[in-house]
Structure formats: structure tokens, C-alpha cells
Amino acid sequence: MSRTAPSTAPEIPGLVYRQPLGSGGYADVFLYEQQMPRMPVAVKVLKRDGLTPAIRRQFIEEANTMAELADHPYIVQVFRSEQLADGGAYLVMKYYPPPNLATRAKRERLTVEEVLRTGIQLSSAVETAHRAGIIHRDIKPANVLVSQYGAPGLTDFGIAGRGGNQDEHDEDVGVSVPWSPPEVLYGQSNGDSRSDVYSLAATLWHLLVGRSPFEQPGGDNSAYALMPRIRATPAPQTGRADVPLSLERLLGQAMAKKPDARPQTAIEFARGLQAIEQEQRFARTPIVVLDESGHTTVADGGGRPAPEHTDHDRTSVRAPAVMSPQPQLPTATPRSADEAAVDEGPQPLTISGGALLAGVGVVLLALVGALVWAIGFRSDDAPVDASTDAPRASATVGGGGPVVDIPEPPGLDGQGVPGSVVFTWNYAGVRKGDFYRMRIAPSQAEVVDAEVTTVREMPHKVAAAPGETVCAQVAVARAAGATSAYSGIKCLQGG
């Protein structure tokens, strides 16, 4: 795809030009100030040089597509578009201040919580596009803008397809190789919902690591070098100790070589990300999609049981059922209509007159039963795991869901011995199956960027000449996917 000369910012009624924002192969983006109401807007302008009917048609389709999806909170809003007398065209959009996510990922390490939240929000946008029959086909970090309130905005629908269909002009536009699935790169598919899921996962991987999944630091990362890796090399792990194994597995599945092995829809991928949020005790990010009538809705059950006829693959996420071992006591506390709407189960009984004594008896029996249940649960016949008596960082997630043990950061120590240094560590609540992730480097400053090594047991010995410095950090990891924060950095010298 050849680059053309930058276009000149056109004079647009009601807008005052301020400055350039960026440039692509076929269009430039400028910052304007709208005069009424006064606010900044981004204007995408087609370049005149190299302009073809196919490019002009793609630009018009982009405007129409983004306008069709403009109500979604995570899709960049289009205000208007116009074709100019000289054959050019422009698109007036909501302004998102720099940087985009590609630039942010280069400058800083995004947290796992932020990446999960962004992934769910982007998946919501992509699912909404899919339900409108639109495949994006160019999801990547550079096409995700960020509002001043931190919300992502998916943009650049220039090569989007309707239902995955592709016509004879699409080859003029091309795809972004580092984030595209093998079936698209090798012409086996024009793109569908599963190819967009692949690109979503590749984008999240990029946000975690700071580069695309198959890029090799210092190596040949041209399109011709990347394509064989994307086709044949399994998706690598991120190498970050704070990334849970469950997220590593989900990203690997979503970047599977065969489309059938991936989550089949963006909302399925989003629900997988929500499950990891729950596992890690992060705040739940809602999925926002269009419902069956074409209106934007929050696609979460919110813990309320859905009617049996509801199609859960469309707009709802059903919370796991919560089973309580203790009997529920009746209550006569009055509730508002809003509170009653949240609980669709049996309504509380109103106890009055002669029924009062009977009600008290029921309550007493229930309390006795609960006490007997509690005593029986702690009976000497119950198996006891001695390791669980130690303090631990754990929480019940999802209102009665499984207990997720988040290990505490370990304390790192060690000593130099002849020919090596030996690192040891300790932490409360040791569990069978715990393993460890270590960063090891020759200086304290290099540790945070060092390659992560998986260690199965301690102590851990590292070869070191007498007087040679070795620095390290360690984190505790669990088979269920929970990972502690890293320990402090410890530097030792070989003996």
C-alpha cells in the first residue's frame, strides 16, 4: 500500500481548522473546532493524490457504517460527512485526545484489570457491529482511541465488510498483518465474526506486552516474515507474571489457527473475559450490545434469573445460581417496588394475629437447624487440611461462587554460595501445586523488563561468578490462574 502526499485541510462551514492529528495511506486527520456548539472535532479527509473510485467508495461506506453504529458508547461517533466538488470527501467525528492504545502500549504497561475491561468494552462494540451484519476486519491497537474519561472508541471501519462479503475492490485497501488471522492473510476467508475475535485477542495481547503477538524484538518483523509465523507458530504467552493462566488460555484459544477452535462470537469472548474478572476479584465490566429490537442494552443478567424463553446467546449473561446451606428466614420488613423488582423469587410472608406464635416457632426451628448444621460441619469426622489454617488472601466471588485464593506477595531472600547465588522465599497459605514466576537480571534496573522464568520449587539456584551480581523478583502462581504481585527486588553476589 503506497503512501501519498498529505492533503490540505479543507475549509468547512462552521468549523475552524486547528492542527493536524495524523496521516494514513489514503486519508489525513485534522483537529477542528466546531463553532456551535463549541467543541473540538476530528475531521478525516481523503487525500487527493492516488484517489480512485474504489477508495472513494470505501470512504463513503465507512461514513455510513460508523453512522449506523454511532449510538454505541465504544464506537467513535460520526457527526456528518460530505463529498467535495473536487472529488474529495471528509468525515466529521467525535474528538478523542491522543494517545491511542498503540501509543499507550509502547509508553506504559497496562494493568491486567484495564486490559480486561477494555477487552469487554471493545467486544461489546464488535458484537454490536456483527449483529448489524458488519465485520470490522481491521481491529488493532491503533484503531482504538481513548476518551478523556478513559473509555475506548473503536474507529476506522474503512475496510469493514457486510456479513463477511468482499468484492473486487477490497484488495486495494489491504489488512493489518500483525493482528490478522491466518485464514484472512492467506485468502481462505474474507473475514467473519471469528476473524474479528482473533484480532480482538491479538489486540489485547499487544496491550499486555507492548507489541503484536508474533513480532520478534530485534528480528525481521516485515509482513512477509510475520505471515508464516501467524500461520504456523502457536500463539505465545505474554510472559507477564501478573497475567493469570486463565487469561493466557483464553487469548491462546481466541488466536487459534482454526476459526472453529476460537470463541465463535465476540460476546462469547467477552463473557470469557468477564469470568476472569470475577476470578481475579476485579469490578465487573458490563457487556453493552444491541437487543433484538435494535436498542442498546446492558447484556448482563445482574444476578436476576432470566425467563426460560430468553436467548442467552443474544443479550443476557446469566449469573451462576447461588446455593445456601442455611435455611432462609421469613421477614416482615417492607420493601420498595425497586427492591421487589430485583428479587423475583417468592415474596416475604406477612405474619399477623394468631399466626405469630406459629411463625416464631418456625424461626426457632430454623435457627436450631442452622446451629446443628454448623456444629456438624465442624465435627471431628470432617477432613481438615492443615495448610488452610494459615492466613490467606481469599474471597468468595460472585455472591456465593467459588473461593478464589489470591496468594500474598512472597518475601524474597537468599545468599551467595561458591559458583552461584541461591534465592529463597516464603509466604503465608502455601498450597499444593503452587509454582513461581521469576525475573532475573544482572542489575536492579533490568529486573522489571527481564524474561519471566517458571520455577516449580524453591530454593532456586542461579550460576554466578564470585562477586557477580544477580537480582531477582518472584511471584506466586496457582493452577487455578490466580497470581500474586511480585516480591521486592533482591540482589545477591556470587560467592
TrEMBL record:
Molecular function via GO: ATP binding; protein serine/threonine kinase activity
Transmembrane segments: 355-375
Biased composition regions of type Basic and acidic residues, renumbered to the chain: 306-316
Region (Disordered): 295-339
SUPFAM superfamilies: Protein kinase-like (PK-like) (SSF56112)
Name of the protein in question: non-specific serine/threonine protein kinase
Gene3D superfamilies the record matches: Phosphorylase Kinase, domain 1, Transferase(Phosphotransferase) domain 1
Annotated positions binding ATP: K44
Catalytic class of the enzyme: transferase
InterPro entries: Kinase-like_dom_sf (IPR011009), Prot_kinase_dom (IPR000719), Protein_kinase_ATP_BS (IPR017441), Ser/Thr_kinase_AS (IPR008271)
Record's keyword terms, sorted: ATP-binding, Kinase, Membrane, Nucleotide-binding, Serine/threonine-protein kinase, Transferase, Transmembrane, Transmembrane helix
Stored SMART domains: S_TKc (SM00220)
Domain Protein kinase: 15-276
Domain of life: Bacteria
EC number assigned by the record: 2.7.11.1
Biased composition (Polar residues): 325-334
